[in-house]
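Below is a filled-in request sheet from our internal design queue. Each sheet records the structural input a requester submitted and the sequence that came back. We keep these sheets so that new team members can see what a complete request looks like end to end.

REQUESTER: design group, bay 2
PRIORITY: normal
MODE: inverse folding
CHAIN LENGTH: 958
BACKBONE (tokenized):
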């Protein structure tokens, strides 16, 4: 229930606390403000005119000397004594409020600041000095007035008019020490609190010293005097009045001031930020069409899961045991009105809200925390997203498709429009690939309506052709983002981009109207705090004394420069902690504090070399694990070189086979295809000559020249020969083809732990059907071939044994994963199996009729052949992967179960999962691994392998 609008309150049931502070103890730090004390008196005069008793009004003033006498005279005329606005008296006033009243009216005028570390609003007290700033923490006061009183609490309607600045504290300014209020249990009563702030976070409030008032107070008092003298006033109309004034484009001022209204209804739990019309433009969208409501809801849920998985894949400063997240700061390079000059990781959501058009570019060196900041912002936006705001979607720009020539700009508006459409198409395609949308039409509708807020990570990782004639290494993409406008309004659409700085001005993205921030180096206190949290004994162990002494030098510290980013700290802490430290403490300390040419590079090289071995020794990573650290480094280096050769960042199992050499793998597969087909074709040729089941006799007749090849037998032989030629050519062609027939899988790659648990009960029927499909296809083919050679009994035995063993083994034990993503996706293959069976049955019926065989026999024969052919084609991608991994295993370059190794790398913090692929979590680590010298090729001894062959026929694709 909205208690503020329940009706008027008896003036005798109103209590008021009016605070006006114009002078402070440190006049140099906090300048005089001729205005707040005068405005407090004006509010007192209005309250008295409304009939509020003088004894119900507390007037706390710290006026300028020239106004002190006048203030006392005017207050006496109202029958209200002036109480000094000291910290103790202000605190006592709010603690001892008359809670028998129903309405509280509060005005506070003076200096105010925002602490960037907590985004809390501090109302400065008169005793504040530069060295000892004191304040009332507004949220602390607000909550105090919501708590239960031992006797009663009838202040169920509370109005706060806060006329202070909202500037952010500068980096070296002290954060005010708040005077706390007692807290207790929140009341069960419905309490309606209304707050009207003169400015939003990061902005100032205009004070006119000549008139002795503020622009904000003038508007509020103007409305109060213009309406009926009833309490409470119509706060909704008051909000609209103030909002219209400060949103008026004709209002000329050098300072952007945006009053903010927050309405909090306790117990009912409703809270809203009304802001100004100018700032609401950025986020509010037209009402979504009815057919998109469900899609938006699914997009929100899936994006939340997607961002959460990505965050868990980042082994940043918080991923190491005992090492907590650092509140990394960043500075604004292009300061716009209302945008703070600096902020930090924990407050990025508040910072983003101050950017009018929602365009943010995060710059920083490698490992400075850009991606972690973008992921945190996306998480915060998703958690607090309203229905009329776009859904944040996290995308990595390594997947950006360079536009084809026909979509590249030619200087005309039409050319730019084609480029933007290409960018929109790429966004829609990414929504599908990351399984954020179910169909292309919905994805395109969400993009065209600007219902997504793209969070684009890694602009520096975009590879652009040399012929690009635009600023920066990714000019087409920057141009497309720059012209990505809100539909129907022509304003820049919200977007967040991260980019690594390299010192080259050409890499600076030129997004118009974007707020550009630069990640800051970690300060010495942040470094010391991280080391204290993450390294046992850092504060007390004598081995660390030289480092502690160096860090005490502050900005002159050599070690601070070498540990000035979260990534560098992760490397250092990981190297000296864990069950098997890779770098002795004394060696690390010496390397951190010593000077000399090349010392920085040598230290970084040493820490990079220790990262993977430390991950191997980390006890928190469960099996399966690499056999030893050098092997893990060798395998990861091979993967990194593979990515470098193919100009990619994605390790996708369905394309992993190329790592062993495309032509080599395809040639081996073609030979395997032809070998299997020839076995079956030879059986067909012998059966055409001598009949099914008489292979031995037929071979004997062919050898001694007594076989009859005339008449119907001749026609059957020619038909069998033609069949042999066709299927052999098809087998060789499919083996050598580039296409693997693996369907596009939009679901993410499933974790190894999920797959080791076996099929869930809900999908057990599908698993049984899949096993029957596998066994039926392989068993029928080999059984049919054996029948043609040796007769029906042999065919049934061979087909049954092979079908049952492979059907059960490849589904239940190996877990045949033809999509190579861990996703159970049999329906795609069953469709093609069915089509192959029908096509084969029809063809076999016709051919057998033409060669004087019973048509029903042709139907059965063709169905078996078509079923197996369709199944074999669907198995091409999986078999190619098995061949490649077998070749890499024999050369001792990769493990046979490479997917299990990739899963280990993800859990160890070396890799991250993105959609259906793995990526190295840090480009610097990937480049270092790729630069490692490749060991000479070797083959492992084969002794003892034959005994284990039955249990390792094929590797499990985890």
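RETURNED SEQUENCE:
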């Amino acid at each position: 229930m909205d208690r503020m609008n329940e009706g008027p309150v008896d003036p005798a049931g109103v209590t008021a606390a009016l605070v006006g502070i114009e002078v402070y103890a440190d006049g140099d730090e906090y300048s005089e403000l001729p205005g707040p004390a005068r405005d407090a008196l004006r509010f007192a005069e209005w309250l008295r005119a409304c009939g509020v008793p003088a004894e119900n009004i507390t007037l706390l003033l710290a006026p300028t000397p020239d106004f002190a006498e006048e203030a006392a005279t005017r207050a006496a005329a109202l029958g209200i004594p002036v109480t000094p606005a000291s910290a103790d008296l202000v605190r006592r006033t709010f603690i001892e409020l008359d809670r028998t009243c129903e309405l509280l009216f509060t005005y506070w005028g003076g200096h105010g600041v925002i602490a960037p570390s907590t985004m809390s609003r501090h109302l400065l007290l008169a005793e504040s000095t530069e060295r000892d700033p004191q304040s009332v923490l507004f949220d602390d006061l607000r909550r105090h007035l919501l708590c239960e009183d031992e006797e009663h609490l009838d202040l169920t309607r509370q109005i706060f008019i806060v006329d202070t600045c909202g500037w952010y504290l500068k980096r070296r300014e002290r954060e005010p020490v708040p005077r706390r209020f007692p807290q207790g249990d929140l009341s069960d009563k419905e309490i309606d609190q209304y707050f009207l702030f003169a400015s939003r976070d990061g902005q100032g409030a205009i004070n006119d010293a000549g008139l002795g008032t503020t622009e904000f107070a003038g508007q509020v008092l103007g409305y109060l005097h213009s309406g009926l003298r009833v309490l409470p006033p119509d706060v909704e109309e008051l909000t609209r009045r103030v909002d219209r004034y400060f949103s008026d484009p004709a209002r000329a001022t050098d300072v952007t001031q945006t009053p903010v209204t927050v309405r909090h209804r306790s117990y009912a739990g409703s809270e809203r930020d009304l802001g100004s019309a100018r700032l609401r433009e950025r986020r509010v969208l037209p009402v979504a069409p009815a057919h998109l409501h469900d899609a938006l809801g699914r997009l929100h849920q899936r994006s939340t899961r997607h961002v959460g998985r990505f965050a868990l894949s980042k082994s940043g400063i918080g991923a190491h045991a005992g090492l907590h997240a650092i509140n990394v700061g960043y500075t604004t390079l292009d300061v716009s009105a209302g945008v703070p000059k600096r902020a930090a990781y924990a407050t990025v959501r508040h910072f983003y809200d101050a950017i009018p058009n929602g365009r943010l570019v995060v710059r920083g060196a490698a490992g400075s925390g850009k991606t972690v900041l973008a992921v945190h912002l996306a998480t915060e936006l998703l958690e607090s997203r309203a229905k009329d705001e776009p859904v944040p979607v996290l995308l990595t720009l390594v997947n950006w498709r360079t536009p084809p020539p026909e979509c590249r700009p030619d200087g005309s508006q039409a050319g730019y429009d084609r480029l933007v459409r290409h960018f929109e198409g790429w966004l829609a395609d990414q929504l599908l690939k990351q399984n954020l949308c179910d169909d292309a039409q919905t994805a395109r509708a969400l993009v065209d309506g600007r219902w997504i807020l793209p969070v684009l990570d890694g602009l520096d990782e975009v590879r652009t052709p040399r012929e690009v004639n635009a600023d920066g290494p990714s000019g087409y993409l920057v141009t497309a983002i720059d012209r990505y406008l809100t539909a129907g309004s022509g304003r820049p659409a919200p977007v967040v981009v991260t980019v690594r700085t390299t010192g080259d001005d050409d890499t600076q993205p030129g997004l118009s109207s974007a707020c550009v921030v630069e990640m800051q180096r970690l300060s010495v206190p942040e470094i010391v705090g991280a080391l204290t949290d993450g390294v046992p004994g850092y504060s007390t162990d004598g081995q660390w004394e030289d480092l502690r002494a160096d860090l005490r030098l502050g900005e002159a510290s050599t070690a601070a420069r070498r540990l000035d980013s979260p990534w560098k700290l992760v490397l250092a802490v990981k190297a000296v902690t864990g069950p098997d430290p890779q770098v002795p403490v004394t060696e690390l300390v010496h390397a951190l504090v010593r000077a000399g040419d090349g010392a920085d590079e040598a230290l970084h090289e040493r820490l990079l070399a220790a990262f993977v071995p430390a991950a191997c020794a980390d006890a928190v990573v469960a099996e399966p694990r690499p056999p030893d650290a050098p092997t893990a480094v060798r395998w990861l280096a091979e993967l990194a070189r593979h990515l470098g050769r193919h100009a990619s960042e994605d390790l996708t199992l369905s394309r992993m086979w190329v790592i062993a050499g495309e032509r080599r793998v395809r040639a081996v597969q073609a030979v395997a295809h032809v070998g299997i087909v020839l076995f079956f074709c030879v059986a067909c040729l012998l059966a055409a000559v001598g009949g099914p089941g008489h292979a031995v006799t037929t071979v004997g007749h062919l050898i001694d020249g007594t076989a009859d090849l005339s008449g119907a037998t001749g026609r059957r032989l020619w038909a069998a020969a033609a069949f042999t030629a066709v299927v052999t050519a098809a087998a060789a062609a499919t083996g050598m083809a580039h296409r693997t027939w693996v369907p596009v899988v939009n679901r993410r790659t499933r974790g190894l732990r999920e797959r080791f648990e076996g099929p869930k009960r809900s999908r057990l029927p599908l698993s049984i059907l899949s096993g029957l499909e596998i066994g039926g296809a392989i068993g029928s083919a080999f059984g049919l071939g054996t029948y043609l050679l040796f007769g029906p009994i042999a065919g049934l035995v061979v087909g049954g044994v092979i079908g049952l063993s492979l059907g059960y083994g490849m589904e239940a034990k190996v877990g045949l994963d033809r999509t190579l993503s861990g996703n159970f996706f049999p329906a795609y293959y069953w469709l093609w199996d069915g089509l192959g069976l029908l096509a084969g049955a029809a063809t076999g019926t016709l051919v057998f009729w033409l060669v004087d065989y019973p048509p029903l026999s042709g139907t059965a024969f063709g169905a078996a052949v078509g079923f197996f052919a369709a199944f074999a084609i669907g198995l091409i991608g999986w078999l190619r992967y098995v061949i490649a991994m077998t070749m890499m295993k024999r050369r001792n370059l990769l493990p046979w179960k490479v997917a299990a190794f990739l899963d280990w790398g993800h859990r160890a913090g070396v890799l991250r999962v993105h959609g259906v692929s793995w990526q190295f979590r840090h480009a610097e680590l990937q480049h270092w691994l790729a630069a490692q010298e490749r060991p000479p090729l070797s083959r492992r001894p084969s002794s003892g392998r034959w005994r284990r062959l039955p249990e390792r026929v094929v590797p499990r694709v985890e």
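SHEET NOTES:
- The two ends are 55 Å apart (CA to CA).
- The mean pLDDT is 80.
FILED BY: M.R.
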